[in-house]
Write a structure and sequence with these properties.
- With about 280 residues, the chain is an alpha+beta fold.
- It is built from 8 helices and 13 strands.
- It has a domain of about 190 residues: Arylamine N-acetyltransferase fold (2-Layer Sandwich), CATH 3.30.2140.
- The strands form 2 sheets. The protein has an 8-stranded antiparallel β-sheet with strand order 5-4-3-2-9-8-7-6, covered by helices on one side. Strands 1-10-11-12-13 form a 5-stranded antiparallel β-sheet.
- It is globular and about 50 Å long.
């Protein structure tokens, strides 16, 4: 039996939500699916803040994303993408990563999920569920000296000192910054459930302490937090400013966050508590 239960995925509904057709495995088809996914769904922790997270099993994730029109965070995004790719005939391996640069800060738990795809002789890292996700997969080869331009945002994947780890880096104003380091240890569904339990319930987890809502849009990437707005555009200075009174609803609509009226009201109440 498949421990990931990918047969539960309604593949037709998922592809319809992305607005793409099923295609034979190829680099172009993989790029298309990955980018369509990150442009279709928000990265957010809203259900964590509302205390109603349904879990990270595939059945719960697809009901939330496809049934409710919602988004989520890495465990959900990657669970859905990995299942879709597997159903489409790709060779996938689920991986866990540590967020941040272990050389500069306290080592974090393995609480980020990505998926590795083997396509012919090529290994590719798919990362659809990071705050500022890759638009398209990035090759896991070479010495990290080559940049991967993702619509104006340069990334590179650097082999870490430990040969079983890869560091994903994004070029920022101050230079290359490590987003996370992925290892090549085996991952089982229980590892994802444990990671989700920690990130969604531990009092020190940043997912329990404030709003994080992001989405790729044409020509920009938008981040909405408890009290701030950040808009990034390739080649332009990043816009940071306080979130104005009443502006949260504007962005909930703009980013197409599928909240019911009662959920939106509860979110406002929760954010009010966090601000106080």
């Amino acid at each position: 039996m498949d421990p990931w239960q990918v047969e539960l995925l309604d593949l037709d509904a998922y592809l319809a939500r992305l607005g793409i057709a099923a295609r034979e495995p190829s680099r172009d088809a993989l790029d298309e699916l990955h980018e369509a996914h990150v442009r279709s769904f928000t990265f957010d922790n809203i259900d964590v803040l509302l205390g109603q997270h349904p879990g990270v099993g595939l059945d719960a994730v697809q009901e939330k994303f496809l049934g409710r029109g919602r988004g989520g965070y890495c465990f959900e995004h990657t669970t859905l993408v990995a299942a879709a790719l597997q159903r489409l005939g790709y060779a996938v391996t689920r991986r866990l990563a540590r967020v941040g640069d272990p050389a500069k800060e306290e080592v974090q738990g393995r609480t980020h999920m990505v998926v590795e795809v083997a396509l012919g002789e090529e290994r590719l890292l798919c990362d659809p569920g990071f705050g500022m996700s890759l638009l398209r997969p990035i090759a896991m080869d070479g010495d990290g000296s080559s940049e991967d331009d993702q619509d104006g945002w340069p990334y590179r994947l650097v082999p870490a000192a430990d040969p079983t780890r890869w560091a994903l880096e994004r070029l920022r104003e101050q230079g290359w910054e490590v987003a996370h380091t992925t290892d090549e240890l085996p991952v089982a569904p229980v590892d994802i459930r444990i990671g989700h339990h920690f990130t969604s319930t531990f009092p020190g987890s940043h997912f329990t302490r404030g709003l994080l809502l992001t989405k790729h849009q044409p020509g920009r990437h938008v981040t909405v937090t408890t009290d701030r707005l950040t808009v990034r555009r390739p080649g332009s200075e990043t816009e940071h400013r306080p979130l104005a009174d009443g502006e949260l609803d504007v962005w909930l609509d703009e980013l197409e966050v599928g909240l019911r009226a009662d959920e939106r009201q509860r979110l406002h109440s929760r954010i009010g508590e966090l601000r106080r």
